[in-house]
Amino acid sequence: MSSRNIVVVGAGPVGTVAALACARLGHRVTLLEAEQRVNDAPRASTTQPPTLEIIEALGLIDEYIARGLVAPTFQFWDRPSMRLVAEFDFGCLKDETRYPYVVQTEQHKLALMGIERLKAMGQAVRMGTRVTGLSQDADSVTVETEQGPLRADYVIGCDGGRSTVRKSLGIEFEGFTWPERFLVITTQFDFAAALHGLGKRWECETISLKPYPCAHVLHSFIDAILALRAEGLRASDVARIRCPIAEHMIGIVCEPREQKIAPQNDWQGRGSLPYSLAEALVTGRLDGTSYRGDAATRGEIRALAAKIEYEVDRSAKPNQFKGWVIAELNEGRVLEKIEPYNRGSAERPLRDFDILKKFRDNAGARFDEARIADIETAVKSLTGPGAVRRLGAACSI
Ligand SMILES: Cc1cc2nc3c(=O)[nH]c(=O)nc-3n(C[C@H](O)[C@H](O)[C@H](O)COP(=O)(O)OP(=O)(O)OC[C@H]3O[C@@H](n4cnc5c(N)ncnc54)[C@H](O)[C@@H]3O)c2cc1C
User: Fold this and answer.
1) Mean pLDDT in residue range 117-130
2) Max CA pair span of the chain
3) Most buried of 61, 120, 133, 224 (most Cβ within 10 A)?
């Protein structure tokens, strides 16, 4: 067969495959694509055995399979009822084809593979070249583009559903538009990792309970300062306190510094490392009554908070909420306490007694003892029909 000069319009999967097939037969090919780059929006991806054989004939099969997912079965689901309608086992075709499976490789990957091969073969690929019309005489076709005309022995129109080539030839597009609309969404989110152990592993077993009414990342620091207080440390002894802290926590509880030292309300105080530590050291506790002391106490707490500084803890591990307090005393001694894990975490669980005490202290601000006992009973029997309703009734105000 003598070599022909062939123009292929459209670098979708059909155009690139057609161009590559022509090039492999020895023809000179020019592939024209209107856009600057191949459209990689999610569209077709499932490739059945006969198409895999065509892709093999084009010399692309190994890369095509390597860049996709091999599925030995194919399922049809009924969307409204979420019911599996049928499952096809392609393994039944093992004596009929070398590819008894389907391969999921997105169509833009096929187009890009084809373009790469065409370029490697020295064929012309012209992106950003829109075809505007064509005409033919007895010998050749003239392809009009926005960049000027091209002549070819043959033109293959692969320019999609609204094909300019088709319209130029006066060919109708038969068929109909489905009345449904589809939304296609793709993501690189790792669902397998996120769903690992779903229904078997209970995340609530690793949730930290909060013994103190402040930001979760502060809890180990509070434990550390209260431990130093139990050993005799007092606010009046302090020249300076340094707190090494994981870098990602700084923007949460250490900065902006002016606000963290002198919070404008109790919520700002609960998110402040220096203020919460100062409150714990001055008052000896951090509970439901904290963050709202009288003016004199608040003044003392702020003065101490101004002496509490932070520095980056380079040894902090991800997901570890360590508390590290280094207190430099006026008389020159340095006291240090590290709490590796926060109380209430899986590594350092709270005792039932501590949980109940916190509940009773908090509930006591609102309910009498009989009501508190009712709520505890309802929580302890939180199984079976009506249990949640009983708890709701016990808690109602
Ligand atoms: C959201 C969505 C999901 C789909 N899902 C599936 C699926 O799951 N399975 C399936 O089999 N099919 C699916 N399809 C259909 C499938 O994408 C098409 O059948 C396939 O793209 C057709 O390939 P093509 O190469 O003929 O045309 P296209 O992929 O449309 O490529 C045509 C190319 O021609 C270019 N072009 C257009 N006009 C000109 C011009 N005048 N000059 C130069 N270049 C031009 C375009 O820019 C484009 O790059 C889906 C389609 C969509 C939109």
Assistant:
1) 98
2) 105
3) 224
